[in-house]
Amino acid sequence: MEVFAKYGTPAQKEKWLKPLLDGKIRSAFAMTEKKVASSDATNIETSIQRVGNEYVINGLKWWISGAGDPRCAVYLVMGKSDPKNKEKHRQQSLIIVPADTPGITVVRPMTVFGYDDAPEGHCEILFKDVRVPVENMVLGEGRGFEVIQGRLGPGRIHHCMRCIGVAERALDLLLARVTDPSRRTFGKLLAEHGTVVADIAKSRMDIDQARFLVLNAAKRIDEVKAKGAMKEIGMAKAVVPTMLLTVLDRAMQAHGAGGVSQDFILARSYAQARTLRYADGPDEVHIAQIGKVELRRAAEVTKSLEKQRERSYALITGKAKL
Q1: Residue 222 near residue 228 (C-beta atoms within 8 A)
Q2: Distances (CA, A) of 200 to 75, 164, 167, 250, 255
Q3: What are the GO MF terms of this UniProt record (predicted)?
Q4: 3-class DSSP assignment, residue 322
Q5: Choosing a second label site near 297 at 20 to 30 A (CA), which of 49, 180, 186, 221?
Q6: In the structure, what pLDDT confidence band is assigned to residue 151 with cuts at 50, 70 and 90?
Q7: Phi/psi-derived region of residue 125, left when phi > 0, alpha when psi is between -120 and 50, beta in every other case
């Protein structure tokens, strides 16, 4: 919906955005590929070739979330329309592909730690000689990266916000479990054991630290848009899913064997949370980006420190102008 709202033509919005907003149809974003390391999106191999008044799409995608939903009516497909372009980030385009277009095969739903997330699922999809009209191109040829960056920033913070909510729920379950009078070990309530109290305290601190990272990222998006807030978004995205996994693990531990069973939401939540260390960019990509942004300050920091040293020396030697 964000892609259509921000980058769609009036005709694209009329055809796809309105029914999406009304909940009449669903969509899926087809970017990740099976045969390349697509965490670096410049590696994507799906081809988008113009033939007359159509584009022909060929490629194999997987982990396409929502593609299994019977209401899924449209795919946004990332591929290369100009693979020989010397600017690597101008080789890619994003194109609208109706789900009922001939040549599309949903190969299989993928499972996450055994969960198939039916009916939406995360599917492997083959596009073979799929033809769509030229007006299905989003924003223009070679502007795929521009579009996905506009989408991925808000998408990442949405993941983080949901993680905060799940972490709060996990902590609630932890509190209920350890204060249950029927759960006593070595003559004491679970909540009377020091390690359990420490887990509760650490979980609260971890959640609130992560919450403020997300709040700061949201504030920066409001101020400078997603592109200007990539560092703050990256920090939240690298920290929050790992925080959630840690809090879930503590709650699972307090639930004993039940914590890894279907009787509680914890195991399924853990499986879902683990995928978020890959989704919309793996941790390593965000951490590398954050480090590079910080390194840009190095020359300025060095210059400032040198001035401080000069000032200190002048004060010590009595040569400073007070």
Answers
A1: no
A2: 43, 15, 12, 8, 14
A3: acyl-CoA dehydrogenase activity; flavin adenine dinucleotide binding
A4: coil
A5: 221
A6: confident
A7: beta
DSSP code per residue over 166-211: HHHHHHHHHHHHHT-TT-EETTEEGGGSHHHHHHHHHHHHHHHHHH
> Taking the CB of residue 11, how many other CB atoms lie within 10 A of it?
9
What six digits make up the tokens of 311? 């000032």
Structure tokens belonging to residue 243: 């925080």
List the CATH code of the domain at 146-281. Answer: 1.20.140.10
State which fold the 2-141 domain adopts. Butyryl-CoA Dehydrogenase, subunit A; domain 2 (2.40.110)
Q: How far apart are CA 208 and CA 142, in angstroms?
A: 41
Q: What is the per-residue pLDDT across 242-258, written as a single tens digit (0 to 9) for each? A: 999 999 999 999 999 99
- Provide the 10 A C-beta neighbour count for residue 108: 13
- Beta carbons of 45 and 80 less than 8 angstroms apart: yes
Element (H, E) at 51: strand 47-51
In angstroms, the CA 84 to CA 315 distance is 60
State residue 37's pLDDT score: 92
Q: Is the pLDDT of residue 135 over 90?
A: yes
Using CA atoms, how far apart are residues 38 and 277, in angstroms rounded to an integer? Answer: 14
Domain chopping of the chain, boundaries: 2-141, 146-281
Q: At what angle do helices 144-178 and 194-228 cross, to 10 degrees?
A: 160
Of 269, 266, 243, whose CA–CA distance to 255 is shortest? 266
